[in-house]
Design a protein that fits this description.
- It is a single chain.
- The protein has 183 residues and is mainly β.
- It is 10% helix and 34% strand.
- Strands 1-2-3-10-5-8 form a 6-stranded antiparallel β-sheet.
- A hairpin with a 4-residue loop joins β11 and β12.
């Protein structure tokens, strides 16, 4: 198996959530190690999370298992049962279809580094637990910006037809049309 050159693997910052839900994850970085190695059945990502950052919105997967392993720093895992501190050397597993949303927050003063491993199932649907957002996995991997947001989930100023600033009203229309395409 060939050794991967981490310096040659693109590092992407942020996430694909629509405004305003992307803000807690804006400083997160991801390197897609599994893609760089040609893996097809599961993904492996090297993640960094700055102080105050979130790994994602709290979510669960319908058809995908997920696993994280903390390499450096500490993270607070948040799920239905409460919060659990994860330090370097700790890991957590999230079986598919539990309905137990999870995410991690970096409440420490230093950057945290972790591996994120997940299966790639075409039929997977990611459901966010605390906000009304879903994402389909139609191509075997979530693409940037492929999220459907219920109109009721949008803040009032972001809903279609509201007198929102132009930068938000077009986003609301875009996601409304993706979630409920016109006939």
């Amino acid at each position: 198996m060939p050794k991967l050159d981490l310096s040659a693997i693109p590092m992407r910052e942020g996430c694909g959530y629509p405004a305003p839900y992307h803000e807690p994850c804006a400083g997160r970085t991801r390197q897609r190690l599994g893609d760089a190695g040609g893996l097809k059945d599961f993904g492996v990502n090297l993640m960094t999370l700055p102080p105050g950052g979130w790994s994602s919105q709290r979510h669960w997967h319908s058809h995908e298992d997920e696993f994280v392993y903390v390499l450096e720093g500490e993270l607070t895992l948040v799920e239905d049962e409460g919060e659990t501190l994860l330090r370097a050397g700790d890991c957590a597993a999230f079986p598919k279809s539990t309905g137990n949303g999870h995410h991690m927050k970096n409440l420490s003063p230093t950057v945290a580094v972790y591996l994120e491993v997940g299966s790639r199932q075409r039929e997977d649907l990611t459901t966010c637990s605390d906000v009304d957002i879903k994402s389909a996995n139609a191509d075997g991997r979530r693409a940037q910006g492929r999220f459907a947001v219920s109109v009721s989930a949008l803040p009032l100023a972001h809903r279609p037809g509201a007198s929102a600033p132009p930068r938000f009203s077009h986003i609301a229309e875009f996601f409304l049309n993706r979630a409920h395409p016109p006939p």
